[in-house]
Structure formats: C-alpha cells, structure tokens
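Hi Prof. W.,

I finally got the Lipocalin family protein prediction working! I wasn't sure whether to trim anything, so I left the full sequence exactly as given:
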Amino acid sequence: MNHFLRNSPFLLLGLVLLSSCQSLPNNPPPTVKAVELDRYTGLWHEVARLPVFFQDEDERATAEYSLNDNGTIALVNTAIAPDGSTRSVTGHAVPVPGSENTRLEVTIDNFFAKIFGSSPDFGNYWIFKLESDYSVALVGSPNRKTLWLLAREPQIPDEQLRQYIDYASQLGFDTDKLILNNRPL
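And this is what came out:
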C-alpha cells in the first residue's frame, strides 16, 4: 500500500467520520463476561487479523496497553514491516459503562479524532474470547469488519489457533480473509 495513503490524515478523517455514523448491528457477537484491565494490559502480538486499510498484508503488529490512574488505557500500536522498519500510533481506550470492561471505546490520538470524536457509545473494540491466564485474546468490532487474534507471544500452538479461528467463524467473521503472521492457515 502506498505509504502516503496509509498515513494520510484525510483517511483518518474518513475513518473517524464513518465510525461516528455507525450503529450497533443487529445480533452483535457476544463478548466474554468480564475483563480485569490490570491483567489485560501489557504487550500483545498480532497472531492473525482481518485486512485493514491502514496496515499492509505483510506487516506484523504489536499492541501495548497500560492502565492509567483514571481507569482508561493508554495504547501504542506498532506496525512492523518485513524489513524491520516500524511505525506507531498512540491512543487511549475507555471501558463502555456496564460492559464489565469487555467493550472499549478506542480513540487514536490525532487532530481529527479530537475534533470529530470517535466511536459510538457501544464501543469499537470488543473482547470476544480470552484465555483465563490472559495469554490469548480474540478482539474486534461488533459489526464484524475488524478482527484480531492477539497473544502474549508471537505465535500460539496450531490447535489453539484453529480453535480461535473456528470460534471467530461461529461468531460470523469472514475467517477466509484472515491474514496469519508467520504461518499458513
């Protein structure tokens, strides 16, 4: 993807405007029951994801979350190109009231997001599946257009990978389009 298009503030503006116009879909996928934010924070590696316009197919990514004193989460998402070069964005996440921290409203820190707002009140980052030891998480949007399989390590066992992909498919995500980091499907 063209580097200019990936980093264009006009694309970010479009994303912000589109996300603010969304409504909660009918029959959204269920989330886990509750999330302990202090256990959820830390470094996560992207194991698999659906394609997104802001990340090339051959890039890997990490997400680092840290808990703020006010109960919000600071985030740093880093895309890693095959040549090792990186680019990062920062932002914050606010738990949706009444969701037991299973749904978050994530905002990327940029000029346009601060002017136009971010996601709807139902959140744009939902936690659908989470290992009891907080080692693997399946997260995405309620409209099923974004999905990430995250883990504390860069890879997970093949059987566990298959279980998470199967679960995502049961939730209605188009898992045929998944991009897997460092392994075939």
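The longest strand covers residues 86-95. Does that look reasonable to you?

Thanks,
D.
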